[in-house]
Specification:
The longest helix is centred in the middle third of the chain and has 28 residues, at 58-85. The mean pLDDT is 82. The protein starts with a helix and ends with a helix. With 130 residues, it is mainly alpha-helical. The chain contains six helices and no strands.
């Protein structure tokens, strides 16, 4: 639902602000605050992001779009995993995967630095495995 709000036309901002204010009045503070922040973001962000993306090279935009696609895929996998194995098991799985990623980056950085650091990289890999 939150992603669909971003496709609202600019004319709906007034109604979004009114709905946020009404939600705050009736006591739904989390919903009201979310609606107001979304309305503010929809009003302000295009003024800053449009010139930034207009002047950016195509390769940078491709990298950003691929990163967003990967983030959406990982988010979908987490949602699917929440439904299949539960929230706590999913949190544990994500933590283990993040730990493996950090290990790979640290060990890989030492292996890529040059011949002098290969021994240090292998030592760190052995320490991580232990």
């Amino acid at each position: 639902m939150n992603a669909l709000v971003m496709f609202l036309p600019q004319e709906m901002l007034v109604l979004l602000i009114a709905a946020g204010g009404l939600a705050l009045i009736v006591g739904a503070q989390k919903l009201g605050t979310g609606l107001l922040v979304t309305a503010l973001a929809l009003a302000v962000l295009p003024a800053f992001l449009a010139p930034l993306f207009a002047n950016a090279p195509g390769s940078l935009l491709t990298i950003v779009l691929v990163g967003m696609l990967i983030a959406m895929l990982l988010s979908g996998l987490r949602w699917l995993s929440n439904g299949l194995i539960g929230k706590r098991a999913t949190d544990s799985m994500v933590g283990n995967l993040a730990s493996d990623l950090v290990k790979a980056v640290v060990v890989g950085s030492f292996r890529l630095m040059g011949k002098g650091f290969v021994l240090l990289g292998r030592l760190m890999a052995a320490l991580w495995r232990a």
